[in-house]
Amino acid sequence: MSRFCKSILVLALAGASTAALAFDNYGGVGRPATAAEVKAWDIDVRPDFKGLPKGSGSVDRGQELFEEKCASCHGSFGESNEVFTPLAGGTTKEDSKNGRVKGLSSGELPQRTTFTKVATISTVFDYIQRAMPWTSPKSLKPDDVFAILAYLLNLQEIVPADFVLSDKNIGDVQKLLPNRNGMTTDHGMWPGASAKKGGIGNGGKPDTANKACMKNCKPEVLVGSTLPEYARTAHGELADQYRSFGPVRGTRTLGPEAAKKAAEAGTLELATKSGCMACHGMKSKIVGPGYAEVQARYQGQTDAEDRLVAKVKAGGQGVWGSIPMPPNAHVKDEDTKTLVKWILSGAK
Amino acid sequence: MVDKTKQPGRLRPAPENFLSEDQVKAVGAGRRDFLRKSFLAAGAAIAAPLAARAAEGDPNILENPAWTTSLGQPVATNPYGMPSKYESQLLRRESPGLARVGGASVSFCPLQGLFGIITPSGLHFERHHQGWHDIDPSKHRLMVNGSDDSLLKKAKVYTLDELMRLPSVSRIHFIECGANTGLEWGNVAVPTVQYTHGMLSCSEFTGVPLKLLLEDCGVDYKKARYVLAEGADGSSMTRTIPMEMVESGEVFVAYGQNGEMLRPENGYPLRLVVPGVQGVSWVKWLRRIEVGDKPYATKDEAVHYIDLLPSGLHRQYSSIQEAKSVITTPSGGQTLLDKGFYNVSGLAWSGRGRIKQVDVSFDGGINWQTARLEGPIQNKALTRFNTNWVWDGSPAILQSRAIDETGFVQPSYGQLRAVRGTKSIYHNNAIQSWKVAESGEVSNVQVL
After folding, report:
1. What is the dihedral of CA A328, A331, A337, A341, to 10 degrees?
2. Is A30 an interface residue toward B (CB < 8 Å)?
3. Which residues, in sequence order, are bridge partners of residue B355?
4. Cβ contact (<8 Å) for B319 and A190?
5. Which residues make Cβ contacts (< 8 Å) with residue B232, sequence separation at least 6?
6. How far, in Å, CA of A221 to CA of A246, rounded?
7. A18 vs chain B: nearest CA distance in angstroms?
């Protein structure tokens, strides 16, 4: 049967059944996915564990894997706050019993960890499986994911040290999550059907009700917070984050001295990035001459900049001894010029 | 002497562009009369030999510059055009200390210097969860499947070749990260509108309504009430989207952005557009759509992008970006150089539809006046507002307040904190206040 006839037939069937819509609507566009293709990509795991692969892993195996693949970012005990926010910690036995993390409301919690927040164990499994480890996502086998999750649950004192987590018992572990009752969907910010109509939330009713008052709306202005001085300067020179013409200027927050320093730090970074600092020191010789020595030698020579730019690009030998300087064609012309100017003006 | 404060629309005299740093400082310190006196002096300093002629007028007018008296560059000198060399300062920037890994960080859009409502694609804010890639479009695929077979007649695969043959729509929408202004829930933390509100951009997107693809696969709308969208990046980011939004025709899979293909940082070659909903749901590098009968509680809707309330409960699946606005000129980190006329300009938007009205206050919210909305005013898009202001040199607190077509009025910090406390990270749509000091320096303050 031709594709055309087939779609007519489908349309006819669709007419008979109100639930079904016409499909295959665009001849030649799209093709059926094979079972293997769907299996390869459909890796999501839902709160009801739909999509969960079969498998198991022990706390011990998880500890090994975690040390090898996860600890460099998360710390050996999931406690590190160096790269990402901590995974484990912050809950009590009482929380596990109640399914609500008390520290979230009492203010005793210094920082929210993954396990102080998450209400669904499937979420953690799903994310480790799809996105971890950070630099080689999707490299873990299901057994590895079960093991790593078992280790995290043990760190959180949810399961004992001899525990083996599997697709069979993960549902029991769900019932022990410290913040399993900690979510609410009673709000107006879900853009679909309300809970009453089988969806989520209150149907879009906002939780604030400001009025559009126009005159004498309040007796006084209460300023609750102003910008701290450290925050004024923490984002660099604001004057350089705005145009130098127009109705306003960026405020000079660092002053000309600091701005010069920032520019120099930028050039030093460029020198490092371009590979210069591997051989040159700021003051004295490492492999090649120090920048202070270069400046001293070329001081007052009007053509120094052009000569040095050419030398950096092509490389050279003899002026400073027998070790040659390699050509640096990889450095952009404008960067070479910036670097040479910086050196000749007394690089810092 | 003409009283400048009564002269709206006055043009700034050109020599101001040549104020030295010290001179700008002098103005900033309150010596505003300096400008008047320096008008002729500045001209003279620039063109000393022309001192005699300075009295005749601006040397930029009296002497034709090089660009008026020489041959310019030929066409296609820059086959892909770039901004002027004088436009090097408005860049995407990170906020120090916000994230420690560039691959899971944010770069903020420089709203302080943008005009109108469209964000230049190169300045669109970035938020990546596991870094970005430049994906080969010939190898990119979009799969549509069901959480089980009964929800869909046929799981299908589409190539870019195929998607781009389908009927397309082009629509202008804002995209705002749910964590925009999140640094400011507790107190003032950052100096400029780039960092307070810069996880916000607006583009014209072009693509295919998702509804069309789901129906092409024979979706059963009765059973399939949720959609899971998944990216092709390392994190394969996932989010749950309600089928009601898909059925409305609003949600589309986009390949175009502002007339060209999406930029790699924004999801090249395919991303989801979910108008009015926080940016995290606009899954980039979109590779898979699954229809399901239940929500998914993915990492970014069960660990992050959940709103902590004073009760200790977290709001889950909070997705809509409620009505919000901000004045971009003048705004924090800027300095007004002189008393007199200013066009106060800003942006307003709502995830619930069109902006109906924006009011501006100059006294910290005691009195308000209604601003001009620059059309066309579009559904779930940024709307530019402007209003006239003559600054008399005394301290002021500028605020803007958006009202959307549902009648919702943007809340104050006091009102927002009364229900949500100060520990949430997401969905801060409080009224922003900028304090103008006598020196002309504008700074970030919070008015309760």
Report:
1. -80
2. yes
3. B404
4. yes
5. B135, B140, B285, B286, B287
6. 31
7. 10
* Secondary structure letter of residue B120 according to DSSP: P
d(CA B188, CA A224) in angstroms, rounded, equals 9
CA distance A258 to B193: 23
Q: Is B427 left (phi over 0), alpha (psi -120 to 50) or beta?
A: left
Please tell me if residue B160 touches chain A, with a CB cutoff of 8 Å.
no
Question: Would you say B380 and B415 are in contact if contact means Cβ atoms under 8 Å apart?
Answer: no
Among A39, A44, A135, A181, the strongest candidate for a mutation testing the B interface, having the largest count of B CBs within 10 A, is A44
Task: Supply B348's token pair.
Answer: 């307003």
Q: Is A142 on the interface with B (CB under 8 A)?
A: no
Annotated domain spans of chain B: 13-68, 102-315, 324-445
Distance CA B273, CA A217 (A): 39
CATH 3.90.420.10 fits B102-315, yes or no: yes
Strands B396-404 and B355-361 turn out to be: antiparallel
Q: Which of A145, A184, A185 to mutate: most B Cβ within 10 Å?
A: A184
Q: Do B298 and A127 touch (CB under 8 A)?
A: yes
Contact at 8 Å (CB) between A218 and B366? Answer: yes
Q: Which residues of B touch A251 (CB under 8 A)?
A: 28, 333-335, 441-442
User: Which residues, 6 or more positions from B119, have their beta carbon under 8 angstroms from its beta carbon?
Assistant: B109, B201, B202, B203
What ipTM describes this predicted complex? Answer: 0.88
Cα gap A141→B106, rounded to integer Å: 31
Third-level CATH fold of B324-445: Immunoglobulin-like (2.60.40)
pLDDT tens for the 448 residues of chain B, in order: 444 444 444 334 443 344 555 655 555 555 555 444 544 444 444 445 555 566 899 999 999 999 999 999 999 999 999 999 999 999 999 998 787 788 889 999 999 999 999 999 999 999 999 999 999 999 999 999 999 999 999 999 999 999 999 999 999 999 999 999 999 999 999 999 999 999 999 999 999 999 999 999 999 999 999 999 999 999 999 999 999 999 999 999 999 999 999 999 999 999 999 999 999 999 999 999 999 999 999 999 999 999 999 999 999 999 999 999 999 999 999 999 999 999 999 999 999 999 999 999 999 999 999 999 998 999 999 999 999 999 999 999 999 999 999 999 999 999 999 999 999 999 999 999 999 999 999 999 999 9
Specify whether the CB–CB gap between B322 and A206 falls below 8 A. Answer: yes
The domains of chain A, with CATH numbers, are 3-31 (no CATH), 56-174 (1.10.760.10), 228-268 (no CATH), 274-344 (1.10.760.10)
CA distances for A271 relative to A169, A324, B9, B260, angstroms: 56, 18, 48, 36
Sheet architecture: strand order including B156-159: A31-32, B156-159, B141-146, B286-292, B226-231, B238-242
